[in-house]
Records
---
Amino acid sequence: DAGVTQSPTHLIKTRGQQVTLRCSPKSGHDTVSWYQQALGQGPQFIFQYYEEEERQRGNFPDRFSGHQFPNYSSELNVNALLLGDSALYLCASSLAGQDLPEAFFGQGTRLTVV
Amino acid sequence: DQQVKQNSPSLSVQEGRISILNCDYTNSMFDYFLWYKKYPAEGPTFLISISSIKDKNEDGRFTVFLNKSAKHLSLHIVPSQPGDSAVYFCAASEEYGGSQGNLIFGKGTKLSVKP
């Protein structure tokens, strides 16, 4: 049973560029959340997708956008990259409607903006 | 304004002894709490959780205690093993639309278990 998979694992981009990160949820999961983890910090919630719609959003600018596909996989897009966007981006999947849902995380995408 | 705080950045424990990791929160609407373990170059791995209606949950060597009046929870690992060395994150969430909402994480505590 494949867990949460993310691609790519590492990425280097230049300021001002755009980037797309991808996530396939754990089998049977229908909800995907994205988190940004800066060095020395805990993961920070970006947004959550359920039934192909953004369900919740954290305190991130509109440069961060996403999408969920009918097969529940998801993309995170970041436009006009800033140096401060350099971080580990984590995708987590879960199953909606559960009383005590545990979110399962992927290994993350390390984004470096130069 | 941090809603979930882990005030100890690091903790060092001898193998076989108890490790106690602490976490405080400020949002009284949180109703679900989780602990994750993270090794370098890997994503966080779910460890154990507790609902706000309970004050203790145990799973093998891991026990989580919740004190709602103090807005405090702790993770006990007994006995500690060298393989437990990792960064431990405390996370909390509140109900959203009938399901659990997004997770709010602390900054983590790096546990080192020495042989």
---
Amino acid sequence: SQQGEEDPQALSIQEGENATMNCSYKTSINNLQWYRQNSGRGLVHLILIRSNEREKHSGRLRVTLDTSKKSSSLLITASRAADTASYFCATDASSGSRLTFGEGTQLTVNP
Amino acid sequence: NAGVTQTPKFRVLKTGQSMTLLCAQDMNHEYMYWYRQDPGMGLRLIHYSVGEGTTAKGEVPDGYNVSRLKKQNFLLGLESAAPSQTSVYFCASREHGTGQETQYFGPGTRLLVL
């Protein structure tokens, strides 16, 4: 079964707006990662947050992690049409080396 | 660097046929992975390898075999393809150790089993 569950499944916004995606997971983790997948392509790593971190920034990306609630959120600020893609969270559990992916959020940014 | 490459890009098989998917990486990574992605779903781990000559089962290993004879290559075999194996297959690799957890993905192989 999937470790991560993402919410919403699909999100449609206008260019310039912020997009927030949420991820919940079930077991304790070492880190949580977010990946992006453009249609028909492989996944690309965006950002990693470790279990002892609460917030991390990278450019227009902001990730938060709440280990007490077993949840994470990805915020994309000032979205662009080029941000249109599927976004997946992936958890690296205590066993290490393996990632378990959520089902993804399909983000559409309308110009 | 080419990164992670996969061959073929697309293949159509008949039920019962066999095939091998090849993944190659030029980053000298220790770990390699095979995933499948079905419509509307995330990736599910089939098999993985933490080093040359080693393999381990993932979440959905049935119907697949793998081999890691060379560090840079990870092969995924389907001995007798079934329609349920119609999917997009992704290979990934990463270095080992803390601080090296990012996985690098190939472009995928689309497999259709009739």
